[in-house]
Design brief:
This is DUF4309 domain-containing protein. By secondary structure, the protein is α+β, with helices and mostly antiparallel strands. Helix 4 packs across helix 5, helix 5 crosses helix 6 and helix 6 packs across helix 7. It is 20% helix and 36% strand.
Length: 378
């Protein structure tokens, strides 16, 4: 059974456009404390721009989608690069950053081209004349003096890492796909790369490849290590559920702390947990990060574990008209003050004399922290 058959993509961020003055003040104050409590208060990039973005040349631009490191629902930052006239080295750039429960945001958008006299890329819009752009095989670094394009801690300057591209010029992604031996179907816009900065010279890469029939389902996950000075990739293996324990040891040996390990290996659970907290914050409701007494409800725990909202049981009958095949079931099996246990299993019928139940996993959701563990694979 594909353990990702029920997983939905993380929901997009919610922007608060109109608020009464008193409510606005409350949200700013509460949001800052919530970000801090969540351990997700955005911080400047740990890798200095001059260490990851050498001088660009006119041939270094890869059209596609770039993401900031540690990308999550509470730390959103992306850059879209599209080609206007690649032969003349003219492109369009759209940047957007949204940070924290209070949704501080920043953005910029302009056309840019290669200035042969200056040997650098320059925005064509006078408003952005002080913005510098530098590319490497897998990154875009945006810089400018001071502030002015974003809200609190949400300036769109910094480094964005190549995540998705269907361009034939994306040699970095091609090397990455070949490293894993990914099927050709996953290489044309069906794989996303999430980047996590381990230290000044190493990047941890999580590659998620979507089901080609339903992009909301993840078909494969893989891990790689990128050495920036050497520009070399190392295959760390498949990030499947059955590899969680081994991958946890492997990432910790590379210097990743326990929080980063969880965010990488349990990305879906982590993102849904944060998404739930952001929703509660937007609606003015207390969450477990706001009070020690708060406990996740069974429905909330079920959502974090499965991606399905407002329910504690889900049934998907995949049997044929002859009643042969499987019925997939996810349900809250039991709960107590500390945990909610979600059972994932299927009722298999191969014939009149062959009917049985097959368990895919038992997921235990901590009602105080929102963390999910597997009784089979953790």
């Amino acid at each position: 059974m594909n353990m990702n058959w029920s997983s939905g993509a993380a929901k997009g961020f919610r922007l608060i456009s109109t608020l009464l003055l008193s409510l606005a003040l409350m949200i700013v104050v509460t949001g800052c404390s919530s970000d801090k409590a969540a351990g997700n208060s955005p911080a400047p990039h740990s890798i200095a721009p001059d260490k990851i973005a050498p001088d660009s040349t006119a041939a270094t631009v890869v059209p596609g989608r770039y993401l900031i490191s540690n990308y999550s629902p509470v730390n959103v930052g992306f850059a879209e690069v599209t080609a206007l006239n690649a032969e003349q080295s003219r492109y369009h750039l759209s940047l957007s950053v949204v940070r924290g429960f209070s949704h501080h945001n920043g953005a910029m958008e302009f056309d840019f081209g290669w200035d042969a006299d200056m040997s650098e890329f320059k925005p064509e819009d006078e408003e952005f004349k002080d913005v510098s752009l530098r590319f490497t095989e897998n990154s875009l670094t945006v810089d400018y003096p001071g502030t002015g394009y974003g809200g609190m801690n949400a300036e769109p300057k910094g480094t964005y890492y190549l995540s998705n591209s269907d361009s034939k010029e994306a040699s970095f992604l091609t090397k990455l796909y070949e490293l894993f031996g990914l099927p050709e179907a996953y290489s044309s816009g069906y794989s996303d790369v999430y980047t996590f900065e381990l230290d000044d010279t190493r990047l941890l890469l999580l590659v998620e490849s979507q089901n080609t029939l339903d992009k909301s389902e993840v078909a494969e996950r893989h891990l790689a290590l990128y050495d920036i000075p050497a520009r070399s990739l190392e295959n760390l293996g498949e990030a499947a559920d059955y590899n969680v324990a081994d991958n946890r040891d492997k990432l910790q040996s590379l210097g990743a702390d326990k929080d980063l390990v969880y965010r990488v290996l349990r990305k879906s659970y982590h993102d849904r947990l944060i998404d739930l907290e952001m929703q509660k914050f937007d609606e003015g409701e207390p969450g477990f990060l706001n009070t020690e007494e708060y406990k996740l409800s069974e429905q909330e725990a079920f959502y974090i574990a499965t991606g399905l909202n407002n329910m504690t049981r889900y049934v998907n009958n995949a049997r044929g008209e002859d009643n042969i095949g499987s019925i997939f079931i996810m349900e809250v099996d039991r709960s107590d003050e500390a945990t909610v246990v979600v059972h994932l299993y299927e009722l298999v019928r191969n014939g009149e004399d062959d009917e049985h139940t097959a368990t895919s996993d038992w997921l235990e959701v901590d009602r105080a922290s929102g963390r999910v563990s597997s009784s089979l694979f953790d």
